Amino acid sequence: IHLPLGILELNLDSCRAPSIDGLSEEFSELESLSLINVGLTSLKGFPSLPKLQKLELSDNRIQSGLQNLQGCPNLTHLSLSGNKIKEIDTLEPLKNFSELKHLDLFNCEVTQLDDYREQVFELLPNLKYLDGFDKN
């Protein structure tokens, strides 16, 4: 039995892992992936998941490396709340995600910057919701 085939949703919340391990391109059908509170410090080696739309990475220790998500061009929802993101520049790779509509950075240091919301919406013009609130 080839397990990953046809799995559309995967929840690995609280499975402890500092890096992406055991998650591969075999999960190519995935549309939703949740990795809340797994202790991730890096997204290095994140697999290409072309159908992935919803990625939940809350409460990890990610500081940077969002370019590692480029194999997931159809992301519409990305939650990075409770991570170690401090700079708007860190979000730069997200410009390549034309489908991204919902971004959550709640409880990240970056949210304390002056004009944080304006800067993020400027950087990501396709974004509709930031931290649960729309542009207006």
Summary tags:
Leucine-rich repeat, LRR (right-handed beta-alpha superhelix); Leu-rich_rpt; 7-stranded mixed beta sheet; 14% strand; repeat; AN32; U2A'/phosphoprotein 32 family A C-terminal domain-containing protein; 7 strands; leucine-rich repeat; 136 residues; mainly beta; single chain; globular
What does this structure look like?
This protein is mainly β and 136 residues long. The chain folds into 2 domains: 1-75, Ribonuclease Inhibitor (Leucine-rich repeat, LRR (right-handed beta-alpha superhelix)); 100-136, no CATH class. It is 6% helix and 14% strand. The chain is built from 1 helix and 7 strands. The chain has a 7-stranded mixed beta sheet with strand order 1-2-3-4-5-6-7, covered by helices on one side. It starts with 8 loop residues before the first strand and ends with a strand.
Topology:
Blueprint: E1 9-11, E2 32-34, E3 54-56, E4 77-79, E5 102-104, H1 116-123, E6 129-130, E7 133-134
Parallel strand pairs: 1-2, 2-3, 3-4, 4-5, 5-6
Antiparallel strand pairs: 6-7
Short description:
Helix content is 6%, strand content 14%. The chain has 1 helix and 7 strands, in the order βββββαββ. The chain starts with 8 loop residues before the first strand and ends with a strand.
CATH architecture of the largest domain: Alpha-Beta Horseshoe
Number of domains: 2
Strand order of the largest sheet: 1-2-3-4-5-6-7
What is the CATH class of the largest domain? Alpha Beta
Helical amount? under 10%
The fraction of residues in strands falls at 5-15%
Distance between the termini: 49 Å
Keywords: Leucine-rich repeat, Repeat
Pfam families: LRR_9
Protein name: U2A'/phosphoprotein 32 family A C-terminal domain-containing protein
InterPro entries: AN32, Leu-rich_rpt, LRR_dom_sf, U2A'_phosphoprotein32A_C
